Major facilitator superfamily (MFS) profile domain-containing protein
Amino acid sequence: MSEKQHSDHVEAGWSPVETDRQASGNVPAGHVPVTNEEKALNRALNRRFDIALLPFLSLLYLFNGLDRGNVGNAETQGFTKDIGAHPDDLNLAVSLFFITFVLFQPPSAAIGRYLGAKNWVPVIMVCWGILTICQAFIKGRGTLIGTRLLIGLFEAGFYPCCVFYLSTFYTRFDLAVRIGLFYGQYAIAGAFSGSIAYGIFHIKTGSLKNWQYLFIIEGGATCLIAIIAWFWLPLGPGSAWFLREKDRAYAVERIRLDNAMYAQHTYGDSGIENERLTRRDVIETAKDWKLWYVLFFNILASVPGQAFSVFLPLVVAGLGYSSIEANLMSVPPYICGAVGLYIFAVSSDRMKERGYHIFVGLLITLVGLIITVTVQGHGSKYAGLCILLFGSYVSAPLTVAWLSGNTPEPGKRALVLGVNGFGNLSGVIGSQLFRASYAPKYLIPFYVTLAFIAVALVGYLAYRFTLAAVNRRRQAKLAAMSPEEIEDEKTNPRRYADRKYTFVYGL
């Protein structure tokens, strides 16, 4: 079918793939395969994406995590001392990294929406990969800070672009487990970072310091995988090279139907909307109360995950391990984080529920923090760290899946996911908390983090109850409306996408 024919196709009318027209309970209406044939086709399509697309994107995120957190590994080998800086300069540089990383997420996500993740993600990866290599040869406090600022700028758009990209391939309640697997690479990156660093730090030959080899090897690998990504990634489900023509058509149609009740668009050959981003998308994102409501608690809940992505090797070293052993011993807690995230993500999608899953994840994090700060033995503290990380990676990806599923308009969704990146301000907080002056026990940082998690615990619970209250008010309004008024509410652009009374927020 030609581009012109596709662009005449509007998101309305009958399709062989069923859409649940009545949201049940507190679950948004969307794409629901009805017949056994449709269910089998849906599972087969997800399987193909799970094999050809998700692992590769997860690999890219692995390198994103490696390049973001390798300064913590390098510091165990005297990185700041060798470049003529102070250990506290590393905390400052990591904090400033998150400033550019956060500020440039919305604009970078918008560029990714226009150009497509296929084009934008490889560009920014090559840029930060080159800067990671350059980090091996910097001298002084100023160049350390400058390099981290630039790496933050180019890494900013990666996560929101990739999450939005996934949302164009998977329907809303197939998405959380995929985001979980994808985001889990951030935890796996910590594990790999420790094990890779452990191996590289045994290099004793050559004229370079062992931490310099770490930056060169990881930065070079990032550039290489970015080039491969440009050839591997399809622009959208309609141009997926690993699907048959029939499967590509179904992949486009099910995503169209997942949002068909709340968003009207025309589509190109790739299965991507022709209307990529509008002024109303920007305005509605700025007015989106549910985004700003949850953002504050997302920042607090993300402090442990963000802080330990850089400083866990230093915290583990404080338990009495040597500098090289600390990198290796940081691996099991990260593995625990990845396992916990996967379990919660699978359960969340199957139960079509987000809020209570996040609550339980934060509760586990709180228990881990309490154990870490109260017990005396190093083995018990280490076990506390494993429990802490088991729960600490749950909230961020499930919040993303929650916001994505509750934002059916694709243009607005891209911006919402970009603004949600402000949650990475937790990295600024974490980098200032875990300062060298608090080593080796880091008791004050742990106490402050414990307070943050306790507040986030209450906040997420209140957020869920607030959405439930909005759903009840909307159901009461619909009960008083005639069928004609309800149909008009679905199609009239007066209220935008999720602001329609017919939209039910997922809880």
Notes: Confidence is low (pLDDT under 50) at residues 1-24. The chain has one domain: 36-274+288-499. DSSP finds 24 helices and no strands in the chain.
